[in-house]
Design brief:
It is a single chain. With 122 residues, this protein is an all-beta fold. It is built from no helices and eleven strands. The chain has strands at residues 3-7, 10-13, 18-25, 33-39, 46-52, 58-60, 68-73, 78-83, 92-99, 111-112, 116-121. The strands form two sheets. Strands 2, 4, 5, 6, 9, 10 and 11 form a seven-stranded mixed beta sheet that branches. A four-stranded antiparallel beta sheet has the order 1-3-8-7, with no helix packed on it. The chain is globular and about 40 Å long. 34% of the residues are buried. The mean pLDDT is 93.
Length: 122
């Protein structure tokens, strides 16, 4: 079992920044991929970014590439999502997720956090 707890969401003006954190516990993470997804009202949950815990390789959705950065701290078992140049369309509930295989789709992830709200005002 893996437990994930997100934090760091909030309200920010367009052009501003936020950093989300996801603290993981419950098992070793050497072969796990950690991902961030988001879900806006009335829309499906979508992939934002992921990181391979062992390799450190990262992948991003085109909509956030160049603005968001995913990183991990092995010692703290924590994954971060640094979000810069935020836009109103980034408004959503952001979820942290863990997968033994990795990928871009929600069904590839086995464990999910409770989500944290990010609201970007124009």
């Amino acid at each position: 079992q893996v437990q994930l707890v997100e934090s760091g969401g909030g309200l920010v003006q367009a052009g501003g920044s936020l950093r989300l954190s996801c603290a993981a516990s419950g098992r070793t993470f050497s072969s796990i991929t950690m991902g961030w997804f988001r879900q806006a009202p009335g829309k499906e949950r979508e992939f934002v970014a992921r990181i391979s815990w062992r390799r450190g390789s990262t992948y991003y959705a085109d909509s956030v590439k160049g603005r968001f950065t995913i990183s991990g701290d092995n010692a703290k078992n924590t994954v971060y999502l640094q979000m810069n140049s935020l836009k109103p369309e980034d408004t959503a509930v952001y979820y942290c997720a863990a997968s033994s295989s990795g990928g871009y789709y929600t069904q590839e992830y086995d464990y999910w956090g409770q989500g944290t709200q990010v609201t970007v005002s124009s």
